[in-house]
Here is the input.
Amino acid sequence: DTTTLWLLGDQLHPDLDALEDADDVLMIEATGFADRRPYHPHKLTLVFSAMRHVRDDLRERGHDVTYLRADSFGDGIETFLAERPDATPHIELMRPASHGAGDRLRELVEERGGSLTLRENELFWTTPADWREWAGEPAGAGGTSDGDGGSTDRTYRQEGWYRHVRRETGVLMDGDDPVGGEWNYDELNQETPPAGWTPPERPRFEPDALTRETHEWVVERFDTWGDDSLDGFAWPVTREEALAALDTFVERRLPAFGRYEDAMVEGEPFLAHSLLSPAINLGLLDPHEPVRAVEAAYEERGVDPGAYDPEPSEATTLDAFGDAVGTEEGDAAEDAPTANGSESTERPPVPLNAVEGFIRQVIGWREFTRHVYREAMPEMAEANQLDQSRSLPPAYWDGDTDMTCLSEAVGHVREYGYAHHIERLMVLSNFALIYGTDPAELNEWFHLGFVDAYHWVTTPNVVAMGSFGTDVLSSKPYASSGNYVNRMSDYCASCPYTVSRTTGEGACPFNALYWDFLKENEETLRGTGRMGLMYSHVDNKDDEEWAEIRERADRVRELAAEGDV
Ligand code: FAD
Here is the structure.
């Protein structure tokens, strides 16, 4: 008897135990999934190109890979089994991250006379058992063999989970205490860069022949949304490129990552973000790898929280003890593909707030959202505790708006299939939230528009965090007026709307929508979480002010719905 490992398109790591245990490998390129929604062409190019590269890479490493193109997984499995009528192989599959997919795929194989077992997904750091150890048993009735609890009744908070994982894994720990004495240095991670600061250049991996060929096919074969040229496409599509992307991040971008993590700058879509989510979500990187690399960088080049100011003029670099660091070559493996932006040989120090902030995103937020998704699906996908039902304004599709912040953020998504976290949360989902968008529709938009989007990660981020469709993972909505955008960006300076005004023509659309949203949802929100201060401002407004706010909010909604905001 033989065992075939069925490798899905987001399970592309070459060093899996599952690969070691298998006799051969099956990969199915199913076009049906890509027909479901008008995905960004870069997303489809990325997934299919990475699959094709990994197929070739695995074959070079000596694996026997059957690579099938089919309309659906069902058709692919049928072909696979038909080619082996005498010795039906047993199929193994790492538990897919998408809700219920493991059971569905098992049934699909069994219906065609094959057998399939699910095994742990090695591409997350923590397991469902680790989660249960922290969270206890799921709240929902029943649950599937995917370990899904199926309920949004319980609530979970990331910070507690994050500390638990740090303690359990020893990551960034000094015995029983967090390195540096604090668990979280977020208060140092809310600065905006000074004028003239140039972010480290984005690493670019030039599309090779296989990526170009894949892209041509994608553009011709599928209905897509977003820039269909390859000009802005620079994502890693191979394991080697993913490792080079990680290296470039750790060497060049990590020092400023924390400090400017929440900032937005006109014309700068990437700032010092890692840009690693596409590679991590495809499995080209295992989440241990970026975390260990960042920890190692701290050991080599670490400085106190906030002790390094990543100014352009700052040429001298200091090590953990304040000594000047030499200018030897970095650690980059010599034969690794080089990304541009990594030519300089100076190795800037990495402050603890950057290191801790990054590690929290990965072992805190990323693992947390995955488990909350498992627990809260299928309800979470439809959760809508505020009963919001508006359609997404046309500006999300065509990018045509006078609002600089929205125009920038939508523009980044159209051009790159990427916007960084604060644009996603505090511009794109914040505006949709206070405008009154149906969370499921917003989730759809995020899912099709972003290169790193998968149902398991958009749903908790968009429906729960961004739309407050449920309080399963946060106690208050991420809603704000134009003040937040003004504080964290340079967008308002060039915007024709006036951020300091709430009412009347020309007032920043965020402002009236924000107050109107609080008023409209008072019953649900007044008592929740940390909303007391906001509602004290609500209480201080008189009837006349409310009438003007309502008038402006209605007007903004009307303009936005007509594509005229
Ligand atoms: P960095 O800022 O460099 O962060 C480092 C890493 O931390 C990321 O690569 C990612 O792996 C992880 N991470 C950080 N925050 C989260 C989070 N909240 N959930 C899961 N992982 C996190 N992330 C996706 O991977 N796919 C999505 O489709 C997605 N949609 C989002 C939608 C909304 C409305 C919001 C608020 C967040 C979403 N996120 C999503 C989370 C986060 O914004 C992205 O992971 C991040 O912006 C990716 O860019 P980066 O790699 O440069 O991240």
Remarks:
- The longest helix spans residues 352-376.
- The beta strands are 3-6, 24-30, 65-70, 90-94, 115-119, 173-174, 177-178, 302-303, 350-351.
- Confidence is low (pLDDT under 50) at residues 141-145, 313-336.
- Residues 273-277, 280-281, 358, 361-362, 365-366, 369, 420-421, 424-425, 429, 446, 450, 452-453, 457-458, 461-462, 465-466 surround flavin-adenine dinucleotide (CB under 6 Å).
